[in-house]
Amino acid sequence: MRRKTVYLVVLLFIISNIFTFLASENFYRQLQEELPPPPEPNQELQPLIEVLDILSERYLEDVSRQELIDAAISGMVDSLGDPQTHYMSASDWENIMIKIDGSFSGVGVEITSIDGYITVVVPIKDTPGERAGLLPGDRIIAVDGQDLIGASTLEAATLMRGKEGTKVTLTVERDGLAEPFELEIIRSNIVVPSVFPEMLEERIGFIQITNFDEHTGKDFQEALLELETKGMRGLILDFRGNPGGLLSEAIKICQEILPEGLITQMVDADGNVIEAYHSYGTKKDYPIVALINGTSASAAEIVCGALQDTGTGILVGTKTYGKATVQHLESISNGYGLRYTIAKYQTPKGRDIHGQGLEPDLVVELPEDFYTLQFSLIRDLKPGDKSVEVLILQKMLNALSFTVAETGEFDQATEKAVRTFQQEQGLELTGFVDQASRTRLRAEIDLVLEQMDTQKQKALEVMQEKLN
Fold it and tell me: How far apart are CA 104 and CA 213, in angstroms?
């Protein structure tokens, strides 16, 4: 009897499920009949889809559909012929977001690749990397046990970045040490500064602005206020090497230093004004000079163009890059990103400088080796070495009045000059360039660069004329 009851329950259960399935199927069939038919695929895209299907299914070799799609999008973007419009991979998109944000969570070191080794250029000041003792020239050969030899700087940076407060272990090789060693570092939020203020002699303020990220406007406001509080009599702004960045941050800076009036205006392809940006301030009671060169671009040109057109500042240096277009950033569903041009901008007087650049009021060239001498030596050099770094060393020695032939080969004359330099600096007379010698060379060359900076010297001359 009990077995019959069990069979009956099972049978009822099966019948119940069948009716449930039939009822639900009927319900969805009725629902589909009530809904409008799905739209036909966009006829314009149909050839693209057909080619994608054919190549992914019938091509001689295996090919990824995603790679074909990415290539199609890249081709579409490239066909515009606009160097400022890009389809970016997920990693490139992440990097541009970091640049815009001006911060990231990680170790805090600037790295490069030398002979297949990820090499520390410099640890960023007051970061976990600096506090852990990383030095210029250190070679990071592994991150959390993952080998980095032969890796790209992007791959290395990705491994070192991570959530704030998490631990990362770097395996490091250092010249002079027989064995690699490990550094255990706790990641933190790294804010990369873009505004560098200082007070020069005779209370001349100097602010270098390296790019325009989300912190630049606020940092500039604070720097300017600090200098003004200290009795600043004149202001030099250094935009040399500034590739631009966020338009909003350029506007904030202009609103701090420009009198009331137009800063810039965005126009469409036909020249119609889309949006205009204004300053509502008052004219500063001190002179302003801006330093520019061929790599001053975009947002930097907006500030400098406004300074020039309004007569607020004098431009010193060489012609700027000439990028007067505005880009918008859009994230794509696959994690990629699109950067595309949406408008042009004009200076307050309506000048379109795209492809033309800004001509300085005072043209001043820099000495030939000025930028070369800014490179830091980040690894030991010894007699017999032959490389670009040896050539830079020889240029440094010549700049310090130690006459050597610039051959790129660490010969006897170079060794003799290094020994003489070491003796003058009270260093060990090794004849090769170790960490201590690199540090002293950098300090001495920085002093020389101040004297070689003809553009900055001219800006100071102009300032003296204005103040006297």
Answer: 12
- Provide the terminal-to-terminal Cα distance of the chain, rounded to the nearest Å: 117
Rounded alpha-carbon distances, angstroms, from residue 284 to 101, 237, 347, 380: 30, 14, 20, 49
Residue 9: the pLDDT is 34
Q: What is the pTM of this model?
A: 0.80
For the domain covering 372-452, report its CATH number.
Answer: 1.10.101.10
Topology classification of domain 105-191? Pdz3 Domain (2.30.42)
Active site residues: 298, 309, 323
For the chain, give the mean pLDDT.
Answer: 88
> Residue 277 and residue 297: Cα distance in Å, rounded?
19
Cβ(143)–Cβ(160) under 8 Å? yes
Read off the pLDDT of each residue in 329-346 and give the average, rounded to a whole number: 88
Range(s) for CATH 1.10.101.10 in the chain? 372-452
Q: Taking residues 339-352, what's their average pLDDT?
A: 93
Where in the chain are all domains bearing CATH 2.30.42.10? 105-191
- Cα dist. 4→10, 11, 14, 24, 323 in Å? 10, 10, 15, 30, 87
The DSSP letter of residue 99 is: H
pLDDT band per the 50, 70, 90 thresholds, residue 26: very low
Specify the amino acid at residue 36: P
State mean pLDDT over 395-412: 96
pLDDT given for residue 11 in this prediction: 35
- Give the CA diameter of the chain: 117
What is the rounded distance in angstroms from the CA atom of residue 21 to the CA atom of residue 195?
68
